[in-house]
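Much of our argument rests on the idea that a fold can be written as discrete symbols. The record that follows shows the chain in one-letter code together with its fold in token form.
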Amino acid sequence: MLDVVTENALNLAKAILALFIIVDPFGNIPIFMSLTEKMPKEQKRKVFNTATLVGFILLLAFAFAGQEIFSIFGVSIFSFEVAGGILLLIIAIRILISGSLMEMNESPESIGAVPIAMPLLVGPGAITATIFNLQAYGVAVTALSVFAVLILTWAILRYVDKVYIFLGKTGALVIARVMALLIAAIAIQYVLFGVTHFLENMK
């Protein structure tokens, strides 16, 4: 009995670590800042609450029904990579041109859902890792790992404001522009990965 508990705990730790590394909330902090730097504190809270909840639901949905979802729409994970890359590229261009992602008629919830929840938090890598965890460790470990990683991500996002205050308005503005270029680079990488994987799969 003790061996089973130890094995399950070890599997859970592995699943959490793998998914946390791919979601990478620490590495994405500057990007989150650039997407929300012009929002009031209350709106930022709504954005990050929505992003965490939507990310949790989407990861579980893709874990348990990912293959079926892709089959219904006749798409592959490679197409998803390309689509996510194009979306991020559009976002990067909007930030570079207007200095902000959010328009007057956009709600914090919509920004939290797209692009923060998807494709930044729940991208092709996170979906693939969650599907792998389900196959390797089972339902309970996968669900707990998704919950743990998204709770940790939510806690990290709560401190984005403190980073913004530390940098100041000018510093945050510079970071936002630089991160827009980084988002564009990530977008291109997504597209290249998707095309490369698709071509390799065709061989």
In short: The first helix runs from residue 2 to 23. The chain has a mean pLDDT of 77. Residues 85 and 188 are 6 Å apart (CA to CA). The chain is about 85% helix and 0% strand.
